[in-house]
Amino acid sequence: MSAYADFHRRSIEHRDEFWAEQSGLVDWHTPPTQVCDYSNPPFARWFVGGKTNLCHNAVDRHLNQRADQVALIAVSTETDTERTYTFAQLHAEVQVMASVFAALGVKQGDRVLIYMPMVAEAAFAMLACARLGAIHCVVFGGFASGALASRIEDAEPCLIVSADAGSRAGKVIPYKPLLDEAIAQSKHKPTAVLLVDRALSAMNLAAGRDHLWAQMRQQHLGASIPCTWVDATHPSYTLYTSGTTGKPKGVQRDTGGYAVALAASMKYIYGGKAGETYFSTSDIGWVVGHSYIIYGPLIAGMATIVYEGLPTRPDAGVWWSLVEKYQVTVMFSAPTAVRVLKKQDPALLSKYNLSSLRALFLAGEPLDEPTAQWISESLGKPIIDNYWQTETGWPILSLCNGVETAKSKFGSPGKPVYGYNVKLLDDQTGAELTGPNQKGVVAIEGPLPPGCLQTVWRDDARFVNTYWSSVPNKLVYSTFDWGIRDEDGYFFILGRTDDVINVAGHRLGTREIEESIASHPNIAEVAVVGVADDLKGQVAVAFAVVKDASGLADAAAYLKLEAEVMKVVDQSLGALGRPARIRFVSILPKTRSGKTLRRAIQALCEGRDPGDLTTMDDPLALQQIKDALVK
Ligand code: ATP
Ligand code: MG
């Protein structure tokens, strides 16, 4: 048995012993008396009796050894600014922010909603909450007022931290009017709003409610605010899921379990070491931003890059220039971003010295083989696909090369990560599928490991009903994703359980069809959805982004490409997988986090209302789908 298989087995069979060991990776004010309390399944309580603080672990505890090392690098290619903070400076700034929060009435357990662009102050705000034991609720900056209002109502924050504006592709997006509109819409009103003025957009201040960070910072400079020691089970934050499949859910995370899970993941998955630099291209509005821009790297004593801007501005070499400049060792991004880069000049990749970089981790959606192959060859570095969810907070499937060196298989996010007792289950019977290459629902047997969601914010019933009640006859956590496991134990994610197409009784994962279509040399990206069909039950319909669209205005050329792509599918999957229609578009509808909104596409194809689109990036993409449907 391999070293990793042993490691994983121990994490399940000797769960408490395993996690007691990992708990030594973080500092405790009071050590836990019980590792895991699972007396009330599916609610797991980790490190019961322990008291700790996330901000202490991310900042204060590094002061002894690395006060003068860089902790935070805030880069904006939108405003052309770069600011760096050492651990000592970060410590000072976070205390000032915490002192301002306290002056504005924030106490332990209160919620603070953070609606911010990717600036250093957003990180200070999150850490200041952790310092005070307040619960942060980060809402992706630039979300429309309706989406923001519903989150304000759900979280009931006493304070909202925001800014005058964000910026995207050089275009200023004023946040303050969106925020004012959201507060007006919401039944709950915050008592205070703290605003970072970036001098991008004029703001109207509401007297008595709105405060300027720069002014308050001056008044609180030099403040000394100790960390509030909280129970390991104290909620550190709530965060909404991406909303790809429907109404976002408020995921609630603990403190102690999360700190331990992140510290362990930095060691066993990411291999990030103190004194090095971590670069995650995500946004603090998403779970990757929470775990691997802010807390994970800082807990590990690494410098972290907070990046505002596109991957392609001023040119598509910008990320790699940062890798060179800051000697980045570990990088984290999403397949969608890699696909964007793939369309750019490859010379921009080889222009920089990337020798510091050890690996690129990708997560958030399926990493198709051509994209994986391309980035792996272009960078000459290991590409490690991570499969996880907002709910889990850290990877469920990955390669854990901190334990042993395993090779990637393109298209697979690897094997179950230690702590996760992953099963493939028959969705109809709940029976476990143990043979190779059997298709099942990816499920996790309780207790979920440390760091995963404790519950849905203020809605225990929704937690149980949504996640733990979908597989017949079993209390297991459903990921709502389909997967298979090959003979070597590698998993492949086939798509979401609601993305499976049933053509004349045959169940096909949309991802299989997408991969096949994407192997055509002129296809950059594709989304396949199942559309109701009187005869076959469902048929597959594909929307593909072509690399070279010239000539497609000509109907004959359009049909020719469609026929060509269908032939590719016939050859790789058989006629059963062949889409009934393939439509060419220049952009696919996506969430702000880069996930394709198949649910909305499907609804449009079936003539239904596309539903909650508050997290959608570019509404024009949906218009293209509508237009393509009448072609
Ligand atoms: P919602 O739950 O609100 O519909 P969402 O599921 O898109 O939104 P996230 O928690 O951001 O919200 O995404 C997790 C999902 O993303 C997974 O369940 C899976 O479907 C997909 N995913 C994440 N990483 C990978 C990966 N490496 N390979 C394949 N799919 C992935
Ligand atoms: Mg989900």
Automatic annotation (TrEMBL):
GO terms for biological process: propionate catabolic process, 2-methylcitrate cycle. GO terms for molecular function: ATP binding; propionate-CoA ligase activity. Keywords: ATP-binding, Ligase, Nucleotide-binding. Residues 512-595 form the AMP-binding enzyme C-terminal domain. It comes from the Bacteria. Residues 60-447 form the AMP-dependent synthetase/ligase domain. InterPro entries: ACAS_N, AMP-bd_C, AMP-bd_C_sf, AMP-dep_synth/lig_dom, ANL_N_sf, Propion_PrpE. The keyword Protein transport does not apply. Pfam families: ACAS_N, AMP-binding, AMP-binding_C. Residues 4-58 form the Acetyl-coenzyme A synthetase N-terminal domain. The keyword ATP-binding applies. Belongs to the ATP-dependent AMP-binding enzyme family. This is Propionate--CoA ligase.
